[in-house]
From TrEMBL:
Its cofactor is Mg(2+). It is an enzyme of class 3 (hydrolase). This is 8-oxo-dGTP diphosphatase. It catalyses: 8-oxo-dGTP + H2O = 8-oxo-dGMP + diphosphate + H(+); 8-oxo-GTP + H2O = 8-oxo-GMP + diphosphate + H(+).
């Protein structure tokens, strides 16, 4: 296992920060977690929970972050002069199934302040946008009504029930399973009413995109950043055509804004198009191929960029509308 994964930067929301867990957090975390009312809701934690066990767990989590297997964060409340530790939240990856398993807890005195739901929202959208996963899975004991409410509030959908051993309770406990998919996170959008979807024709959205292919036959993909709909999916650089703009002018503008390259119209060759029905609009998207541009592409909008060769293309989760492009592009790149 490689040890070269960079620790994530702290994630913030309101006056809270999620900071990758450190050994120095152990004493504060121990005073909060070694509490029957907290521990009884966590399947893997015994009671009493010794500081030695917690120290070992933190060491393991730090190593797992370096290995890129899991990401555990200490939750700080920054509204005090010296930030106060209030709990912990983390996600463990199962990249084979493109799944992350999330868990969280707060010290009892910090319950009922919306901290858990905001932290869960923050970590879930960060994880789907930045890690190699497509779904997040969570488990809650059936008598943990507060946690079930938090999961539902954050868009997690119930998908089944089971039994799991809870160490502190020393029993098999009934649990409910929840799943969050990327589609469940729609920044800034309210759910679309069913009758609206069924009766009204959908608005056609004209978007232009470019398949930029370099001299080595590699294709440039961009990853939708956190905060956008479908964050974490890969797409072709481009964007919406504005009123009174030609598709080519829109693409030249978008390529400059998004990745700081200069392209001339004569270097944009129409290749194919997508006509795809999304839940709330119908996408019409011409795709141009481009082999020549000025400047080295650089991410200007907080997106990740990747140069991908023909064999690697299938490993990238592209937007639904873009899927039919992949075999055509492979033929072109081969
Ligand atoms: N640029 C681009 N957009 C795509 C691709 N595939 C695809 O479905 N789309 C959709 O087309 C729309 C593109 O709009 P956009 O890039 O201007 O806007 P956005 O949703 O990213 O956010 P924005 O309006 O804040 O800029 C998005 O809804 C995006 O999901 C693609 O390969 N490239």
């Amino acid at each position: 296992m490689s040890n070269n994964h960079k620790l994530p930067a702290p994630l913030t929301f309101d006056h809270y920060t999620l900071r990758p867990i450190e050994q120095t957090d152990a004493s504060s975390l121990h005073s909060l977690i070694n509490d029957w009312n907290v521990v009884r809701m966590l399947s893997q934690v015994p009671f009493p929970y010794s500081k030695t066990l917690l120290d070992q767990w933190i060491n393991t989590m730090i190593q797992e972050m370096k290995d890129g297997i899991s990401y555990h964060f200490t939750i700080f409340d920054r509204s005090f002069e010296k930030p106060v530790i209030v709990g912990c939240i983390g996600i463990r990856l199962n990249t084979k199934d493109q799944l992350g398993k999330i868990g969280y807890w707060l010290g009892q005195k910090y319950w009922g302040k919306q901290i858990a739901s905001r932290a869960l929202q923050r970590l879930s959208s960060w994880a789907l946008a930045n890690l190699n996963i497509n779904y997040i899975h969570a488990t809650a004991a059936d008598d943990n009504l507060a946690s079930i409410a938090v999961l539902k509030k954050c868009g997690y959908q119930p998908f089944g029930q089971g039994k799991e051993k809870f160490l502190a309770r020393a029993v098999e406990q009934s649990v409910s399973y929840f799943l969050l998919q990327r589609e469940d996170i729609c920044p800034g959008k309210s759910p679309i009413p069913m009758n609206n979807t069924l009766l009204k024709p959908k608005k056609i959205l004209l978007v232009v995109a470019a398949a930029l292919i370099d001299i080595d036959g590699q294709l440039l993909l961009a990853r939708r950043p956190e905060g956008k709909s479908m964050a974490g999916m890969w797409e072709f650089p481009g964007g919406k055509v504005e009123p009174n703009e030609t598709p080519e002018a829109a693409l030249i503008r978008e390529l400059k804004e998004e990745i700081n390259i200069d392209v001339s119209q004569s270097c944009l060759a129409p290749f194919t198009f997508a006509s795809h029905e999304y839940a709330d609009f119908h996408l019409l998207m011409p795709l141009y191929v481009c082999h020549k541009w000025k400047n080295v592409p650089e991410p200007k909008e907080n997106q990740q960029l990747a140069w991908v060769n023909c064999e690697e293309l299938d490993h990238y989760l592209v937007m639904e509308a873009d899927k039919p492009f992949i075999p055509l592009l492979k033929d072109l790149m081969f």
